[in-house]
Design a protein that fits this description.
single chain; about 475 residues; alpha/beta; Alkaline Phosphatase, subunit A; 2 domains; four-stranded antiparallel sheet; about 25% helix; Arylsulfatase; hydrolase; arylsulfatase activity; Sulfatase
């Protein structure tokens, strides 16, 4: 009897040891830090040609990870872009367009599942620091969308009483900690530093379990503001100073995860919500030669840098020229964390094969450029881009503003139909419709699919599969 009991005890011990060893070998889900800038252009990093200042820490992300050279923000404006990146959907699918303000009665619907919400199903601690801009009524704020912590502002920091153009239209700018307003009219010069410090603290407190941080810096959106430690440090004025402080912020994050020994289990993603607001002149960034800027469906409005670093998983120094978008980040994070995809339909595709070095992978075949309320202004297959005739914003022909005051722009310029070969003409200067009629037909077929699905105000199609945003009546 004793021998049988001893044998059973020995067998149990062996089984438990084996299970323990297997658990040790199973990789834990990676920590994820998504750094989302506001109005940074394609040419605003030293690796993409910035002048008068350097971004060595951001460059390090590219040197030790992957640089996506053909990455597109979900839409060329604040709220819509954020709705897209957090839900994995084209913004118009979830009822978003434009940039909502303090008077808006709409916000991100509780029916939509954000990155934070799906990652919480895998035990992630989640936090949002910085700018939200997806609804300022309590039921639309971050803690109602899967975030454990929030410290930041509910909308853009130019929506405040000190705005030179709309003075007295906006109320005092609130700064939230969780669901409570802790300051009104905070010192915006401290935003980059404060939101970075909150990020560093959250990393330290959650180092022993997986975490997701959405660090949405309000800069370099106007009004530009920088702490004293970086003021006057660049040769590009206040804009360069702001970019240097953002680079410092990235450096602080990289140092923290290295010091804690979680460097090889942390994915850092860095990108921007749209391109630069060009009519602000020396207070705006650079498109790096791409056409137009924020608020347009041309390349300067939506094509921005995207860098990802995950030591030991993403091969170092990769450059990916494949077509990708911010709407692809949610399904990618779901894949690498083992989290379930949202129950409702999304538009993003999984990029995990690309970031792990499979150069043959080509998960995204097309991209739809929507703007205004629901206008399909262009469609692309990555090589060619078909622009449809539409009224839109142009900065061309207008002198830019200076020192925080905007210059003019034409908001209703009539752009014609045109086809651009983005391989040879990323600046979209030469219409080649007559040279590639078969490409035009292929892209028109793709546009018809989009119109049937998501609608198109330009052709009067309401679409079949758009979902309403959250609303308070």
């Amino acid at each position: 009897m004793k021998s049988i009991l001893y044998f059973i005890a020995l067998l149990v011990s062996i089984l438990l040891t084996g299970i323990s060893m297997m658990a040790e070998k199973l990789p834990s889900p990676p920590n994820i830090i998504l750094v989302y800038l506001d109005d940074m252009g394609y040419g605003d990093l030293s690796i993409t040609g910035s002048k008068g200042y350097g971004t060595p820490n951001i460059d390090q992300l590219a040197r030790e990870g992957i640089f996506f050279s053909h990455y597109y923000s979900p839409q060329a404006v604040c709220s819509a872009s954020r709705a897209g990146i957090l839900t994995g959907c084209y913004p118009n699918r979830v009822g978003f367009a434009g940039a909502i303000d303090h008077n808006s009665k709409m916000g991100l619907s509780s029916e939509e599942e954000t990155i934070a919400r799906i990652l919480k199903k895998k035990g992630y601690a989640t936090a949002a620091f910085g700018k939200w801009h997806l609804g300022c009524i309590p039921q639309f704020m971050p803690l109602q969308h899967g975030f454990d912590e929030f410290y930041g502002i509910p909308y853009s920091h130019d929506m405040w009483p000190n705005h030179p153009i709309t003075k007295n239209y906006y109320p005092p700018l609130p700064l939230y900690d969780g669901e409570q307003v802790v300051e009104t009219m905070p010192d915006i010069k401290q935003f980059t530093t404060k939101f970075t410090e909150k990020t560093i603290d959250f990393i330290g407190h959650n180092k022993n379990k997986p975490f997701f941080i959405y660090l949405a810096h309000p800069m370099p959106h106007v009004p530009l503001a920088v702490s004293d430690k970086f003021r006057g440090k660049s040769q590009q004025g206040l804009y360069g100073d702001v970019m240097m402080e953002i680079d410092w912020s990235v450096g602080q994050i990289l140092h923290k995860i290295k010091d804690l020994g979680i460097d090889e289990n942390t994915l850092v993603i860095f990108t921007s919500d749209n391109g630069p607001w060009l009519n602000y002149g020396n207070h705006a960034g650079s498109t790096g030669g791409l056409r137009e800027g924020k608020g347009t469906s041309y390349e300067g409005g939506q094509r921005v840098p995207c860098l990802m670093r995950w030591k030991g998983t993403i091969p170092e120094g990769m450059i990916c020229n494949k077509l990708v978008s911010g709407i692809d980040i949610l399904p990618t994070l779901a894949a690498i964390s083992g989290a379930p995809l949202p129950a409702k339909r999304i538009d993003g595709v999984d990029l995990s094969a690309l970031i792990k070095g499979d150069q043959r992978a080509n998960p995204r075949q097309s991209f739809y450029y929507y703007y205004r309320r629901n206008s399909l202004e262009a469609v692309s297959n990555g090589d060619f881009k078909l622009v449809f005739a539409h009224p839109g914003r142009t900065y061309q022909g207008f002198a830019p503003g200076k020192d925080g005051m905007p210059g003019n722009a034409n908001e209703n310029f009539n752009f014609p139909d045109a086809l651009y070969d983005l391989r040879r003409d990323p600046g979209e200067r030469y219409d080649v419709m007559s040279s590639y009629p078969h490409i035009v037909k292929e892209l028109e077929k793709m546009a018809d699919i989009a119109r049937e699905d998501l609608g198109d105000d330009l052709t009067g199609n309401p679409g079949k599969n758009r979902r309403p945003p959250g609303r308070v009546h």
